[in-house]
């Protein structure tokens, strides 16, 4: 490599290195790291699941500037153990129940390190044909596992692409839908374009709309209600869209969600698509978390009506054993994406692209450079197989049912929204749960906030919260790969213990 | 984990698995993979550097759908060897000279697998404090290595963030600059906003402007000339901006480049910033490739004047031993980014954020979820040290000088643009290079296209091309980690041999 030849600065320095990719040194250090990570998984329950460090802790521990001379991997790993691990919130811990899972697996890990090892930059077919072709293949595989209509698959003239996160995917589809609409009604209508979601839609939609230049005043968050289980009501959508049209605005994009982040609410895809169709509105279905479950026949009905949508996403890095990041986006009309996102600089021109026989994924996403993400999804699909993947998802749902039962059996608690998948939303009440809290919202919220803080500060389990319809709610999302039934039972015990303490300490209301 | 317990489908199936993150199985398979990748590096020169497969090759080799039952890692790795590797273009090969390097290293790899192992989702400080804090620290470290003005560092109230690619970074800065400008002049001016670059600026700018909703007709690519070495001329910028202002338009964003993709041209940062300042235009400096070299004192002058810019990027995944993806973005005013990109959903509310003592990187980028990218940059900085990193970069520049000399010594060839770093742009001529080609542009371009095709099809080396000022040019970018002087000398021999053949086969002009 010539690259790290002796410089006069380093002459006679015993730490001088020869080749940053020397295969034998790579092998030595690589094995060391595998053991380090395997040990981490082995010991993961000994760490507090939510990191308890204070803001600024690390600055006090690390030097002011980068070292001039090389340091050994042994030294660095000691620092990882001493300084980094205490500052990590252990998403892989079996006691992790916050947000949504980030379900790692051996296969996902191996796929990631294979693609890191090859380190190809697959912006177009030509730059590494296998990266593009494997992606097309696994996206059709997974699309079929989900029983997506053929129109979403390459074999039906649609197709799938792996992006980093749902935020990127929504931004790409918004840009495509926006340009398609402006193309029809004239670019001067930009200011009139309206985006729709519910008050439960992920903030990714608002952010994507903002980045895409949609005017803030044209971003609609349609109110949902508890009586509708926080799903977006098609009639509310129709009324809102109609009013906008009457006001001279141009509706163009709806994001419907299957499994919202707060409570896993379900927007009814079919009826919403019918409304959208009447107004020529692009429908994106965000099933970031719950989409994975739809490979099980018993959950597939949640995306019924998907044939009326234009695009669909799920995050394989959430609940599908594929390491971060891996968002699966399918579209029925790739040309709409390509029209908005393609560029053809001279330095990328090549025969394969000119032949039009290949997919150039750079035109399906925001970024030019792209990692070989298909590798990890391929390894997950093959290493576990459809059967095991279904079992994996079902086992989490089963554990969530158990947890839900435990909550329901303690009359100090109430389950706050239907449990559709493996997320249980609940709260504690200062009195039996058949008495209304309507006049005591704030103290009840405070009680739950205190309870959650006390649980999380214990480091024994980590759950997160949300506020829906004014109520502060604790979210228990089951899905960490290492979680077993015993962890769920223990988590519930931890909650009960902390609730006992809260009740003793406080005299509420 | 309960997760992969027996389903009736899998009962009595010997392939049934127990735990997708079982530490011992992880260890066994992990070690296997490390050897697989180490062997790949060991044998990398035995593969044709540019993949020679035909479009659609992989579909013929893989099954129609995902397997129902699990497959062993041994089977999968055999398939990687048999089916995937032939379809890979070997960016890590020492004979890879195309586009820009994707310089892998043991430290970069180890950092990536550590962060994959932890698999944390560091959207905000709270979700994994170490991920955020280490990022702030290494961004200040690297900023100081580049001698960036303090205003770009956290210690000077600016700051850095790791994104995936420059495309994302430019989009974020365009959105920030756009909203800042609209805030001043009113949102109805959206249609009037103008973006500036040169005809050599990366297509990332055009794409970002398009995604951000800037009107196509307001995207300016200012012409550069060979006499200016394809750098953007400040006077041309001033004239263009002034004309736009006079036409009632609103200039707001300039992307200046240090080391353009086609020829490594340098836009003069200082003088361009002065023009921009007069018109209140945000300046982003894109040093995706060449920025790395600026850690060497002798190259630092290329970013002189950076104190007048608003944002600066380099891709550590290009020429800084850090695996894809790792774009370093620094800004002088993080609040401008945050104003455009922040969201505050209930499910992410937490004490640390409320305290305002922490950085929440979700508000500095497009996506919410984010990988722990700082880990790999930290490992690269520590494992090699400033001294070795400089040597690494210098060794490539030295090899590029050698290559340039070889080209210049063969009077059938000409070097087409100044070699500022480790990229040499050249072409072959059908007659001695002191005779003008002005009247024979097409046949000369055809000759070079044929030559490059023939070189690349040999599989011995891989170079890429561009077109500048009407001339088709071959690009030789030296920077693969494994490249040594002998590879460069051999590459030149390959070119000469193929040129000999082209000359024999064709009678040109």
From TrEMBL, chains A, B:
Gene Ontology MF annotations: carboxy-lyase activity; pyridoxal phosphate binding
Alphabetical UniProt keywords: Decarboxylase, Lyase, Pyridoxal phosphate
Keyword Lyase: yes
Essential cofactor(s): pyridoxal 5'-phosphate
CDD domains per record: DOPA_deC_like
Biological process annotations from GO: amino acid metabolic process; carboxylic acid metabolic process
Superkingdom in the source lineage: Eukaryota
Modified residues annotated as N6-(pyridoxal phosphate)lysine in this record: 318
GO CC terms: cytoplasm
PANTHER family listed in its UniProt record: GROUP II PYRIDOXAL-5-PHOSPHATE DECARBOXYLASE, TYROSINE DECARBOXYLASE
Family to which the UniProt record says this protein belongs: Belongs to the group II decarboxylase family.
Descriptive protein name: Tyrosine decarboxylase
Organism placement in taxonomy: Eukaryota, Viridiplantae, Streptophyta, Embryophyta, Tracheophyta
């Amino acid at each position: 490599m010539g690259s790290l030849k002796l410089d006069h600065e380093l002459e006679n320095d015993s730490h001088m290195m020869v080749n940053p990719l020397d295969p034998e040194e790579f092998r030595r250090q690589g094995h060391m790291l595998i053991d380090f990570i395997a040990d981490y998984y082995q010991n993961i329950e000994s760490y507090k699941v939510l990191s308890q460090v204070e803001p600024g802790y690390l600055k006090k521990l690390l030097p002011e500037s980068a070292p001039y001379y090389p340091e050994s991997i042994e030294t660095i790993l000691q620092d990882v153990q001493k300084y980094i691990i205490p500052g990590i919130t252990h998403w892989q811990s079996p006691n992790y129940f916050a947000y949504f899972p980030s379900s790692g697996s051996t296969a996902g890990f191996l796929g990631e390190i294979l693609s890191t090892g090859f380190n190809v930059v697959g912006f177009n077919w030509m730059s590494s044909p296998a990266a593009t072709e494997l992606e097309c293949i696994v996206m059709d595989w997974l699309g079929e596992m989900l029983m997506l209509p053929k129109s979403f698959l390459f074999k039906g003239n649609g197709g799938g692409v792996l992006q980093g996160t749902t935020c990127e995917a929504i931004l790409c589809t918004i840009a495509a839908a926006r340009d398609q609409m402006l193309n029809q009604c004239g670019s001067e209508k930009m200011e009139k374009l309206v985006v729709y979601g519910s008050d439960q839609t992920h903030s990714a939609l608002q952010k994507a709309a903002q980045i895409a230049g949609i005017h803030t005043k044209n971003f609609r968050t349609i109110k949902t209600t508890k009586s509708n289980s926080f799903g977006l009501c098609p009639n509310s959508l129709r009324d809102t869209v109609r009013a906008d049209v009457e006001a001279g605005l141009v509706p163009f994009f709806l994001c419907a969600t299957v499994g919202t982040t707060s409570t896993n609410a379900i927007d009814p895809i079919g009826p919403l698509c019918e409304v959208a169709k009447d107004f020529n509105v692009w429908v994106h279905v965000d099933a970031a978390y719950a989409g994975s479950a739809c490979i099980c026949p018993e959950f597939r009905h949640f995306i019924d009506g998907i044939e009326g949508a234009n695009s669909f996403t799920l995050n394989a890095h959430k609940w599908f054993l594929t390491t971060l990041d891996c968002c699966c986006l399918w579209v029925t009309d790739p040309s709409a994406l390509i029209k908005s996102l393609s560029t053809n600089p001279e330095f990328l021109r090549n025969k394969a692209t000119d032949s039009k026989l290949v997919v150039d994924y750079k035109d399906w996403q925001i970024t030019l450079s792209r990692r070989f993400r298909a590798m990890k999804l391929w390894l997950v699909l093959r290493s576990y197989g459809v059967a095991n993947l279904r079992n994996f998802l079902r086992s989490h749902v089963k554990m969530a049912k158990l947890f839900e039962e435990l909550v329901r059996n303690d009359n100090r608690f109430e389950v706050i929204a239907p449990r559709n998948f493996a997320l249980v939303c609940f709260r504690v009440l200062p009195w039996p749960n058949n008495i209304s809290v309507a006049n005591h919202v704030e103290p009840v919220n405070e009680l739950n906030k205190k309870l959650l803080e006390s649980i999380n500060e214990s480091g024994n389990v980590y759950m997160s919260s949300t506020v829906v319809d004014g109520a502060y709610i604790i979210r228990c999302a089951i899905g960490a790969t290492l979680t077993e039934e015993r962890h769920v039972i223990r988590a519930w015990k931890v909650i009960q213990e902390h609730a006992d303490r809260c009740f003793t300490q406080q005299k509420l209301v």
